[in-house]
Each structure stands twice: as C-alpha cells, then as structure tokens.
Description:
The structure is a single chain. The chain is mainly alpha-helical and about 180 residues long. The protein has two domains: about 20-85, Response regulator (Rossmann fold, 3-Layer(aba) Sandwich), CATH 3.40.50; about 115-175, Winged helix-like DNA-binding domain superfamily/Winged helix DNA-binding domain (Arc Repressor Mutant, subunit A), CATH 1.10.10.10. It has helices spanning about 20-25, 40-50, 65-75, 85-135, 140-155, 155-175, and strands at about 30-35, 55-60, 75-80. The mean pLDDT is about 90. Helix 4 crosses helix 5 (about 140-155) and helix 4 (about 85-135) packs across helix 6. Strand 1 (about 30-35), helix 2 and strand 2 form a beta-alpha-beta unit. Strands 1-2-3 form a three-stranded parallel β-sheet, sandwiched between helices. It starts with 18 loop residues before the first helix and ends with a helix.
Amino acid sequence: MQAQDGAFRISFTEPGETLLEAVRRAAAELVIVDMARPDRDSLESVRDMNQATPLPVVMFVDEDDPAFMEDAIAAGVISYHVTGAALPEVKPILRTAMAFFRRNSALAVELDAMRSQLAARGVIDQAKRLLMARDGMSEPAAHRFLQRRAMDQQKKLSDIAQTLLSDRTRSESKKT
C-alpha cells in the first residue's frame, strides 16, 4: 500500500509471519506497531527484531499503561503513543522517530568508540605501570618505550601494550 503522497510505503505482516520476517521482506526503514491493548508477545517480537535489525519503532496503543510503556521503550520502541493519530499527524511522528533513531544510533556509535578508547587507555596505563615497576622506568620513559615499539612494528600503541601484558601473564603462568 502506498501512502497518500508517496512519502512512505506501507507493508503489513502476512499471516504467520514474524515481525523480523516482515521487516526483511519489506526492506523496512521504520516499523509501526498498532495494538488495541498491551501485548507482551509483540514486545518480544520488537526486541528480537531490534537485536537482528535495529530500526526505529513507533507504537500506537489504545490503553495507557506506564509499565508497558517502559517495557516497550526497553524493547526498542522509539516513539510511544497512547491514542490513535489522524493521517496528517502521523507523518511528523514518523519523521521525528526516524530522526531520533538516527541521532541515537550516532550516539551509540560514538559511545562504543569512547568505550574502546577508554579500554585502550587502561591497557596502555597498565603496561606503563608494568614497565615502571619491572624496569624502573619513569612514566614518560615507559610511554616513549611503548610508542617506539608501536612505530617500529607499525601497530597501535594499545596492541603493543596488550602484547606486553599478555607476554607477562604467559611467563608468570610458566613459572607456576
């Protein structure tokens, strides 16, 4: 089915088809879940779909249930609405949900990158502490040592630090 102005193409799940199957079949960019009453099975479908194919999910329900709303958001619903909306109101809701989803996705990617950097920094600091304790190096000398080794081997500083720590762990386990 085509939306009024062609801005959206709407597909429905087929009988017996899971939400994930329908999303894949339709190559969906957004999912609308419309339910008369809260349904935990539908939330499980949304959760499964979001684990496999994260997409913005807009949910319309007829009954106000704050606990269900919290569960829906935890399952991946990005926009939750208690009453139906007239067609002119739906398009801005869908566009807002898509924009919000894109923004959240970008923030999630950024957060993952920051977590990786923080973990790498922790490994580097741990390797520097090892060099300082084992070889009596100062912190700047330990850092320069790791930098030189990384440049010589054309590897990331964190990879060199991890190798140093792994070598230490292996040598310690051989002693026992």
